[in-house]
Write a structure and sequence with these properties.
This protein has 593 residues and is an alpha+beta fold. The protein is 29% helix and 23% strand. The strands form 6 sheets. It has an 8-stranded mixed beta sheet, sandwiched between helices. The protein has a 5-stranded mixed barrel with strand order 1-2-3-5-4. A 4-stranded antiparallel beta sheet has the order 13-14-16-15, with helices on both faces.
Length: 593
């Protein structure tokens, strides 16, 4: 017999009744029922119920064992009586009548329990992450992560992609987020950087002729934590392809994402591919965000014409400025003064002056509320018809410069949809956001700057850069969004040095600066570069969605906390003077106050 187990704790079934077995695992839960001790023994694979009789020589040992002690037991598989069968447990038809018990490792008193799912402070959970990871939900999340990555890797290989590894020690990049720097011992005063992404390397692989690349790539960025972003490091499905258009990239990745989500969706429907395409400007106008949650059916509309020169003076005066507009958020089923007042109060709590509204009720021509009375029945009715609303519905209004208010309008749309229970929770809704603007006006410097990715190919190429208003130039850039979460950004790359130099020139970069900062990639392009493009969906976010978690740390085995600290391993930590001397580094304390 094996030293520790003949079966795992999730393997035994009714067909095993009568067998002598050996199990090893953790004491998940212990119960004393009139002299008999019942133990739920747990390992990575599941739970098996053990029964220890008072006549057993090991009874006293078991009686004093703490939860989470590790034991090995030998015993006989017996069928449970019909009234004690647990249909929610795969092993619920049997139990093991224990003969011999060996304590492999006795547990001290626990700083947090493993049985059950109580909410404990994150600091305590991360400090004792090895215990936290034993808890059922988190344990399943990490196993799900492994299964999802395995599924992605298999699907990418089936799509004809090759997996390559790119360097972890590389050069610091002047673009993007803040780098993590690594001092060089052999080159005093110089530093490596941990890669924010394998961007330049994967493009160089295309220049080298490898055509279809992917990698489950670690990325490192010294940035603050958010619920959907882990500080320090994260993983992405890094993808690049040669001789492709934007549609080729979409066609290659859609079956992978659809297949993975469908495999682990647990009954939720997944958008069939090809996924819908939504231009960036339309996304902003309809949903107030470039990350729309399409499970929310509400679509905003520009209703400016119904207020222009009308009786509602505030909106009429706004519209005298051509850049201003009035947007409407439809609210089917929200046609009551109580709901309208509640939304208005919510807007004020968000720092807004309020949220104008009209609601339509039976027997009241033209709608109700102050706005309806000011603009008159005909205009109110025209708004209702434009929005496709009926009696019992409402509409809310946001006015001013759309560039200023669109984000709040998007949040208000989400709030209305959530409050009225309109958001479906049984779907994964995918959408491509396309046609991002290549440039935007930097409000601080009042100069043109890149709006998204400086290495993207502008639509129209060099001709567009030379002849069009920079703020009107679109790029071959795209995001993929599911349920309001951005999974990734991607682009068809700018593979021509002449177009790249001109694109950076418009954003205020001299040729000398571009040649210096991006010499490796720019020089490579001068020796024959194929048209290429790619993207990089976030692994952590994919798993977070599939696990139905709101916080990304719930799907990462050993995450940093919100301050970028590893409380388990006590990192970052101070190092010795000897180490600093070897690296030619002197630590300068921060200047106070």
């Amino acid at each position: 017999m094996h030293a520790y187990r003949t079966h795992t704790c999730g393997a035994l079934r009714a067909a095993d009744t009568g067998k002598t077995v050996r199990l090893s695992g953790w004491v998940h839960r212990k119960r004393d029922h009139g002299g008999l001790i019942f133990i739920d023994l747990r390992d990575n694979y599941g739970l098996t119920q053990l029964v220890v009789n008072p006549s057993n020589p090991s009874f006293k040992t078991v009686e004093h064992l703490r939860a989470e002690s590790v034991i090995r037991v030998d015993g006989e598989v017996v069928a449970r009586s019909p009234e004690t069968v647990n249909p929610n447990l795969p092993t619920g038809e049997i139990e093991v009548r224990v003969g011999e018990v060996e304590v492999l490792s006795e547990a001290n008193e626990l700083p947090l329990p493993v049985f059950g799912e109580p909410d404990y402070p994150e600091e305590l959970r991360l400090k004792h992450r090895y215990l936290d990871l034993r808890r059922d939900t988190l344990h399943r999340n990490i196993l799900l992560r492994s299964q999802v990555i395995n599924s992605i890797r298999r699907r990418m290989i089936e799509q004809g992609f090759n997996e390559f590894q790119t360097p972890i020690l590389t050069a610091s990049s002047p673009e993007g987020a803040r780098d993590f720097l690594v001092p060089s011992r052999l080159q005093p005063g110089k530093f490596y950087a941990l890669p924010q992404a394998p961007q330049q390397f994967k493009q160089l692989l295309m220049v080298a002729g490898f055509d279809r690349y992917f990698q489950i790539a670690p990325c490192f960025r010294d940035e603050d934590a958010r619920a959907d972003r882990s500080p320090g490091e994260f993983y992405q499905l890094d993808v690049e392809m040669s001789f492709v258009t934007q549609e080729d990239v979409f066609a290659a990745i859609e079956p992978v994402l659809h297949g993975v989500f469908e495999e682990f969706a647990q009954g939720k429907t997944v958008t069939p591919y090809p996924f819908p395409r939504l231009p960036y400007r339309d996304s902003i106008a309809r949903y107030g965000t470039d990350k729309p949650d399409l499970r929310n059916p509400l679509v905003m509309a520009d209703v400016s014409e119904h207020f222009r020169g009308g009786g509602f003076g505030l909106f009429a005066r706004m519209l005298e400025d051509k850049k201003n507009a009035i947007w409407a958020i439809p609210a089917p089923g929200g046609g009551s003064r109580a709901f309208a007042d509640r939304m208005n109060s919510w807007a004020q709590s968000e720092g807004q002056p309020g949220l104008g509204y009209i609601f339509w009720r039976e027997g009241e021509e033209g709608g109700a509320g102050p706005i309806a009375k000011n603009i008159g029945a005909e205009r109110a009715e025209a708004i209702r018809e434009q929005l496709g609303l009926k009696v019992g519905d409402a509409a809310f209004f946001v006015g001013g410069d759309p560039k200023v208010f669109y984000r709040f309008a998007g949040v208000a749309r989400t709030k209305v949809g959530t409050e009225l229970n309109l958001v479906a929770d049984d779907r994964f809704d995918f959408v491509w956001i396309v046609d991002f603007p290549m440039y935007e006006m930097n409000e601080e410097t009042n100069h043109v700057d890149f709006s998204h990715n400086p290495f993207s190919m502008p639509q129209g190429g060099l001709d567009a850069l030379n002849s069009k208003d920079p703020l009107e130039i679109l790029a071959y850039q795209y995001d993929i969004v599911v349920n309001g979460v951005e999974l990734c950004s991607g682009a068809i790359r700018n593979h021509r040095p002449d177009i790249m130099l001109r694109a950076f020139e418009i954003a205020g970069y001299s040729p000398e600066t571009v040649e210096h900062d991006f010499a490796g990639m720019l020089n490579a392009f001068r020796y024959g570069a194929p048209p290429h493009g790619g993207l990089a969906p976030g692994i952590d976010r994919i798993v977070m969605l599939l696990a139905n978690q709101q916080n990304i740390r719930e799907v990462i085995a050993f995450p940093l906390n919100q301050q970028g600290q590893d409380l388990l391993m006590n990192a970052p930590s101070e190092v010795t003077d000897k180490q600093l001397k070897e690296l030619h580094i002197r630590v300068v304390p921060p200047i106070k106050g």
